[in-house]
Design goal:
It is a single chain. This protein is mainly beta. The chain has a domain at about 1-5 and about 40-115: Jelly Rolls, CATH 2.60.120.10. It is about 5% helix and about 40% strand. It has one helix and eight strands, in the order H-E-E-E-E-E-E-E-E. The chain has one helix at about 1-10; strands at about 25-35, 35-45, 60-65, 70-75, 80, 85-90, 95-100, 105-110. It has a five-stranded antiparallel beta sheet with strand order 1-2-8-3-6, with no helix packed on it. The chain has a three-stranded antiparallel beta sheet with strand order 5-4-7, with no helix packed on it. A hairpin with a 2-residue loop joins strand 1 (about 25-35) and strand 2. The longest helix has 9 residues, at about 1-10. The radius of gyration is 16 Å and the shape is globular. The model is unreliable at about 1-20 and about 125-130 (pLDDT under 50).
């Protein structure tokens, strides 16, 4: 954690002095592919976050495509990840990402579930929001 804070300070980033609205992730494309939900996120500057953290009632994976982040996951020590890699998040764990570099791009990926938490496998019940990505 000390190394991470040092990296941010050498870039002139004081995450405590930046207004929240200016340091949040922006959400890019999102959509369903079969029964898999994919949503892209952008952390434009070092110190930007995906908010105060959140949790899900299902396991999911975050694909870090560009840059480096500090991942803070409830019950674990904060850990730095560098692209390209993936980060697995267990269900019911609060998690937050903070950009350590400018231009971070990551994708949240998880199986689509019904109201009982069961994975949906019936493609006829899903709408493909990303038809422009089809080959």
């Amino acid at each position: 954690m000390e190394t991470v804070l040092k990296q941010l300070s050498t870039k002139g980033v004081d995450v405590n002095k930046q207004p929240n609205v200016d340091k949040l992730a922006s959400i890019g494309e999102m959509g369903l592919f079969g029964n898999v939900w994919v949503r892209s996120h952008y952390l434009h500057k070092a110190g930007f976050t995906n908010g105060g953290g959140h949790k899900h009632d299902f396991d999911h994976v975050t694909l870090l495509a560009v840059g480096s982040v500090l991942a803070e996951v409830e019950g674990f020590e904060p850990k730095q990840f560098d692209a390209p890699t993936f980060i697995t998040i267990d269900k019911d764990h609060q998690h937050k990402f903070t950009a350590l570099t400018d231009g971070v791009v990551y994708y949240c990926v998880f199986a689509v579930r019904d109201e009982n938490g069961e994975v949906i496998v019936d493609k006829n019940n899903l709408i493909n929001f990303s038809s422009k990505k089809r080959i």
